Amino acid sequence: MPLLWLFLIVLGIAAAGYVLGRIRALQSAGGDSRDLHSLPSYYGSNVALKAAIPALFLLVIWLLAQPFYINSVVSEMIPDTVVPESSSRGLVMAEVRRTAEGLENAIGAGLLDEDFVNNARADVTDITQRLKDAGQIITSQITQPVLRAAQEYRSMNLAGRRYMAIGVIGLALLGAIWGFRETTKDFRARNVVENAIRALLIAAASIAVLTTLGIVLSLIFNTYEFFKLYSWTDFFFGTKWAPSFSGRGGLSELGVLPLLWGTFYISVVALIVAVPVGLFSAIYLSEYASSKTRSVAKPLLELLAGIPTIVYGLFALLTVGPLLVSVFGKDGLGWMQAGTAVMTAGLVMGVMLIPFVSSLSDDIINAVPQSMRDGSYGLGATQSETIKQVVLPAALPGIVGAVLLAASRAIGETMIVVLGAGAAARLSMNPFDAMTTVTAKIVSQLTGDADFASPEALVAFALGMTLFVLTLGLNVFALFIVRKYREQYE
Amino acid sequence: MTDASMHSSAPRKPKTSLHQLDARTRKRNASEARFKMYGRIAILIGLSFLAVLAFTIVRSGTPAFTRTVVEVDFSLNTTEFNASEKELFKTKAYQKLFNASLQKQLTDSGVQVAFDEAALQRILGKVGGTIREYYRENQNDLGKDIAFSLPASSRVDGYFNGRVTRDTLEDSRFLKATDLDLVDALHDAGILKSAFNWTFITGADSGVDNPGGAGIGASVVGSFYMMLVVLFLSLPIGVAASIYLEEFAPQNRFTDLIEVNISNLAAVPSIVFGILGLAVFIQFMHLPQSAPLVGGLVLTLMTLPTIIISTRASLKSVPPSIRDAALGVGASKMQAVFHHVLPLAMPGILTGTIIGLAQALGETAPLLLIGMVGFVARGYPDGLLDGFVEPNSAMPAQIYTWAARADSSFYDKAWGGIIILLLFLLTMNIIAIILRRRFERRW
């Protein structure tokens, strides 16, 4: 793995720089570290940082930029005539990449040699056959331009890697020399090092912003691509979800309304389960329970929140679904067709949300000052009257916030609905019908074998955007309510 | 007079008594009791869900850890071996020898049953090949008594753990109801017994038609590699970000932006992180699909907010006097933080990190989008570093794959996988609790 080696070499240069810088600093002070401006290790760190950081930065940038450059150059090599009408330039490029990879692997396995690969201009059939024999995945017969592009791609890649190694090691050495030369006893090494560390800390903190930026940009770009292929009115106001699968042809109908309805219905069922149970548990635990009961029951309830969602999904699919069918299905009331239904997913999701509602409300109820309760008791109210008329109204904004947060959790939940809610998108009022949600469809559209450029795959990004906006909106709204209506106690 | 008047006005019957509750008080008390009862019921509902869940997991998951094997003493001498190797249908010759030896064993133990070779093949699969393979590799064992332990088909497994019964079994080429007579006979003779299923712990995923051979081992390795990536990226980045925000950040727009971002990221649905991973790491950067490296990167981004929030809490709990003392003896601010505050906050940071890792370990949805689904955990990675980039699955994704398969024998495996996953999570959380108990300081 040459990349790892490159990384280790840079670290090695930095380590050597550390030792040398430290020695030089001590020498410049005549061996007496008291004459130095900073502690000797700072001089070493200065050299090491100057060697490592710019070099590693260059490495990352190069790794990100090289594929773009090579792609654009190679893609210009392919004449328009080669691109078949039914496909796009991107698909041809994918084939070029695959061929290049196949060539590379075949050389790595010792089945082809370097010269043969670079000079095999004429015999396209031969090289295709040889690659197939070598067990490389080649989709079709390689054509002359594709082969030529693949050769170019491969050689540019190799050259790029070589230049990158030279550039990175050179930069590391230059940095080390720079740091080494400026090392004298009066050099303010500590300040320089601390500023560098501070910059690194800021960079780490900015990763959160970069992540959000990454999410937003990847959603926006792909959603934009989607709306170029599919009209946005049909997406937002369409009442039918019927994607056509790749290869079968026909136009897809991609209306988001049935999915939103399924999401909404399942979340409502979940909240109907979770809010009363969670809220009453929180009230009981914070107002009535002895500290012993509380110390046992609270962690046990919170255990429900620590269980991975895949466990709940399996529970819905294999336990709750069949149970509901035996009661409401053909043998019982006859309302339910199959185990996967809104009710199945909603109930299980409700269980998952119980600890979420209860621990948030618990904190909020505990934050209501004791003096308010005492005042109410002093007027002769019973404990439950105090809770209903004093504590809950005071805690209401927080509780509403907690419920909204739970709702946002329910909307974004994936595994339970993928396994428990079914795959059919429909607008129905019957809670025992199978419905599907935004998240479940994101999974099914992106895990299929649809090509990334097709509207069937790109619609997942539009769905993701919808989901992101919905959950973000709910969270912001929850925070707004809590901030605006919160009582301030001092 | 006065006496008389006192008499006349005497004991007027009081309308209320403290000893006797009036209707209104009784109503209020009843409502109090009712309210308290609602609370109790709510807690009981929550706890009973937990109990049902735990019971279901244990009951449905344990079958995955056992499997039925047929133990047959078998011996083959050199002449028989050579004779069989000369035959045209070699495995058939071995099969014949095996059947003879099994029949002898059955008669020895005094069990009477119609011996049906086709049934045996449905129960055990093609044994001849297995035996031939063994003797070709271990020719020294020729002539010795070898105890073969051969796995029975997954439907026989199902018969013993109650998934398949005589009534529900439909005759198919996999198993016929009459075969169960032979199974029972073998069981009575002590030839067919349950054994611990090591394949499930150590094996890799099997194809859709072989539930018996499916194991979770390879995806445990995949999860392990992902956790390595998450640990080595999210711990340093998270700690660095928290130190900046807690100790150095000035109050300005940029700091506010970061803070709002972090709290919002913690609430973004996990599937959106999967979309990010797909778009940025796979489409844009062309990192390999289904690789633990990509999974680790996505989970790192998801775990970062958790780690940052807990790290900031533990940095905040270090009293300012520590910083002041360090600054007072001439340390720079950076030195005060890195030499004094950070070591004191370390137990809290590690606890938060372990809890964040446990969350990441159980996360499934983003992994589905980056391709860790389907038949990808075919085997262990070839090398130590290849483990990061070779296609693999992760425990929760593997469980999902099994749950989505049509053959219900895989459901046992899914539940069994959940037991293993939960054991890992439990261990991590217990470590976190112990760390907190042992090292947490109260100031």
How far apart are the termini of chain A? 62 Å
Mean of pLDDT of chain A? 85
How many distinct beta strands of chain A? Answer: 2
Q: Which H/E pattern describes the elements of chain B?
A: HHEHHHHEHHEHHHHHHHHHHH
**What strand line-up does the widest sheet of chain A have?**
1-2
Work out the radius of gyration of chain B.
Answer: 34 Å
Oligomer: heterodimer
Spans of chain A of 5+ residues with little confidence (pLDDT < 50)?
none
End-to-end span of chain B in angstroms? 78 Å
Structural class of chain A: mainly alpha
- The global form of chain A is flat
Bin the strand percentage of chain B.
under 5%
Coarse shape of chain B:
extended
Strand order of the largest sheet of chain B: 2-1-3
**Percent range for β-strand residues of chain A:** under 5%
Per-chain topology:
The complex is a heterodimer of chains A (490) and B (443).
Chain A (H helix, E strand, L loop, with lengths): L1 H27 L11 H38 L11 H20 L5 H6 L4 H10 L10 H38 L7 H41 L2 H6 L3 E2 L10 E2 L2 H32 L2 H16 L2 H20 L13 H25 L3 H9 L4 H30 L2 H6 L17 H10 L7 H31 L5
Antiparallel strand pairs in A: 1-2
Helix pairs in contact in A: 1-2, 1-6, 2-6, 2-7, 3-6, 7-17, 9-12, 9-14, 10-12, 11-12, 12-14, 13-14, 14-17, 16-17
Chain B lengths: L1 H8 L13 H39 L4 E10 L2 H9 L3 H19 L8 H8 L2 H11 L7 E7 L2 H7 L18 H10 L3 E5 L1 H5 L14 H32 L4 H13 L4 H15 L7 H25 L3 H9 L4 H30 L2 H5 L16 H4 L5 H9 L5 H31 L4
Antiparallel strand pairs in B: 1-2, 1-3
Helix pairs in contact in B: 2-19, 3-4, 4-6, 10-13, 10-15, 12-13, 13-15, 14-15, 15-19, 18-19
Structure description:
The complex is a heterodimer of chains A (490) and B (443). By secondary structure, chain A is mainly α. Chain A is 74% helix and 1% strand. Chain A has 17 helices and two strands. Chain A has a two-stranded antiparallel sheet. The longest helix of chain A has 41 residues, at 189-229. The radius of gyration of chain A is 32 Å and the shape is flat. In chain A, 43% of the residues are buried. With 443 residues, chain B is mainly α. Helices cover 65% and strands 5% of the residues of chain B. Chain B is built from 19 helices and three strands. Chain B has helices at residues 2-9, 23-61, 78-86, 90-108, 117-124, 127-137, 154-160, 179-188, 198-202, 217-248, 253-265, 270-284, 292-316, 320-328, 333-362, 365-369, 386-389, 395-403, 409-439, and strands at residues 66-75, 145-151, 192-196. The relative contact order of chain B is 0.10. Chains A and B meet through helix 7, helix 9, helix 10, helix 11 and helix 12 of A and helix 2, helix 10, helix 11, helix 12 and helix 13 of B.
